[in-house]
Amino acid sequence: MAQAGQSKGFAPKEAPKLNPPKNTPISLSHLAKCDGNSPSYPIYVAIMGTVFDVSGNTAYAPEGAYHIFAGKDASRALALSSLKPEDCRPDWEDLAAKEKQVLNDWFTFFSKRYNIVGQVRR
User: Are 25 and 119 within 8 A, CB to CB?
Assistant: First the structure.
């Protein structure tokens, strides 16, 4: 998995029109339903508790390369640049500074591309 921001910063080639960030509480059970397996739900990925709507990107759909992140807070996996299912979990505070920086880079990458639709309610 390539790390975010390795080329020319974090901005996409064409900046999408993003909505103002929402602070809607989203339960873990609702987040889990937003994994792309039901057309009744959008596809969400959470990073450090912030939920992004990635529905428009087929990479997060069921056959996509990053589907492993869909419907989860994938903070640890993103920080570790891992596609392992066991790493797709929200705990990241114990990681080394370098990995925390990678996670922050991913957060910046997502925030420039996807709408923030809420916060995970634990």
Answer: yes
Enter the tokens of residue 47.
């990073």
Within a 13 Å sphere around the CA of 17, how many CA atoms are in the beta-carbon half?
A: 0
90-118 confidence digits (pLDDT tens): 999 999 999 999 999 999 999 999 999 99
Give tens-digit pLDDT for 43-74. 999 999 999 999 999 999 999 999 999 999 99
List, in order, residues 6 or more apart from 110 with CB less than 8 Å away. Answer: 45, 47, 52, 54
Query: pTM for this one?
Result: 0.89
Count of other CB atoms within 10 angstroms of residue 20 = 6
Q: What region, left, alpha or beta, does residue 81 occupy, with left being phi > 0 and alpha being psi -120 to 50 degrees?
A: left
Do residues 77 and 67 touch, judged by C-beta distance below 8 A? no
- Which residue bears the tokens 């797709």? 88
* Token duo for residue 80: 């570790």
